[in-house]
Design brief:
Blueprint lengths: L7 H17 L3 H13 L1 H13 L13 H16 L10 H17 L1 H8 L10
Helix pairs in contact: 1-2, 2-3, 4-5, 5-6
């Protein structure tokens, strides 16, 4: 007899990801892309589930010395510079920034050299990868 192991944590994590993405206005393609990265790496999934449970980053996963908190702060500072408000307005959605942070980490892990240059200002503020 075969045994089926059902991990409800992943099903719940996918549901929460979909909820956060809908709230933040992210499209289904974004959700699918991020979900594939999360499922493919247990440590990355652990970081995401920790965020869902605690609303903060575990920050154990690093890429070239950068953790999720580093990427989040970098993205928040970049947002503030681009908006030039001096304060975070209602259009600065923290949950959206968190999702973008996880997405940035996933992409950075695939091509760290290009992202390190971008993070360190090598491409300029108006350039994207």
């Amino acid at each position: 007899m075969n045994t089926i192991i059902y991990d409800a944590r992943r099903v719940k994590a996918l549901g929460r990801l979909q909820e956060l993405a809908a709230y933040a206005g992210r499209e289904e393609a974004f959700v699918e892309s991020l979900w594939k990265e999360l499922v493919a790496d247990g440590d990355f999934m652990k970081e995401f589930v920790y965020y869902l449970d605690n609303h903060t980053f575990l920050d154990e996963l690093k890429c070239e010395g950068y953790g999720l908190t580093d990427l989040y702060v970098w993205m928040l500072e970049r947002y503030n510079l681009m908006q030039d408000y001096g304060k975070n307005g209602p259009d600065c959605d923290k949950e959206g920034l968190v999702l973008d942070t996880f997405h940035l980490m996933a992409e950075m892990r695939k091509n760290p050299e290009a992202y390190i240059k971008w993070l360190e200002g090598g491409f300029g503020m108006d350039k994207r990868l």
